[in-house]
Amino acid sequence: MTATVGRPGVMPLWRVLGVFRTTRLPAEDTGHEAELRRKVRAVLVDGESPDARTAAVIALLSSSGTLPALRPPLAWSAKVRERAKELENGSWGAAAVNTAVTRTAAAIAVSSAAVSVAVITAVT
């Protein structure tokens, strides 16, 4: 993502992949993010019992493969991975996300193959 300079007083435009324009609106109060990160760390690293919301967030992060991108990073260990997978397997939402991610990846692979075949066929 790269930022482009906008007019004074206007939020900067961001380009995703150099093509798509998007605007970022920073939160005025980031306390909720810090609290959620603290809860996730407490559950995964310290072994605390999660509330329903925290368990769902951890399960979704784990099933989508984005838990390692959490900042600041967790102290990864086998215990942390096992705890995240335990919460993932116990959450109905995580299974749905995992299925959706798998199906999306498969659809992208199939469409890429179809386009490749079409291009090769058109060229020859």
Question: Helix content range of the residues, please?
Answer: 55-70%
Number of strands: 3
Structural class by sheet pairing and helices: mainly alpha
- How much strand content do the residues show? 5-15%
The stretches of 5 or more residues where confidence is low (pLDDT under 50) are 1-7
The ordered string of helix (H) and strand (E) elements is EEEHHHH
What's the number of helices?
4
**Global Rg:** 20 Å
Largest β sheet strand count, sense and barrel closure: 3 strands, antiparallel
Shape, principal axes of CA atoms: extended
Question: Strands of the largest sheet, in order across it?
Answer: 1-2-3
Distance between the termini: 37 Å
Give the overall pLDDT as a whole number. Answer: 79
How would you describe this protein?
Mean pLDDT is 79; it is low at 1-7. The longest helix has 32 residues, at 92-123. A 3-stranded antiparallel beta sheet has the order 1-2-3, with no helix packed on it. It has 124 residues and is mainly alpha-helical. It has 4 helices and 3 strands. The protein is extended.
Topology at a glance:
Layout: E1 2-4, E2 13-16, E3 20-23, H1 31-44, H2 52-64, H3 78-89, H4 92-123
Antiparallel strand pairs: 1-2, 2-3
Helix pairs in contact: 1-2, 2-3, 2-4
Task: Give structural attributes.
about 55% helix, extended, mainly alpha, 3 strands, three-stranded antiparallel β-sheet, single chain, about 120 residues, disordered N terminus
Task: Characterize this entry briefly.
The chain is mainly α. It is built from 4 helices and 3 strands, in the order βββαααα. The relative contact order is 0.09.
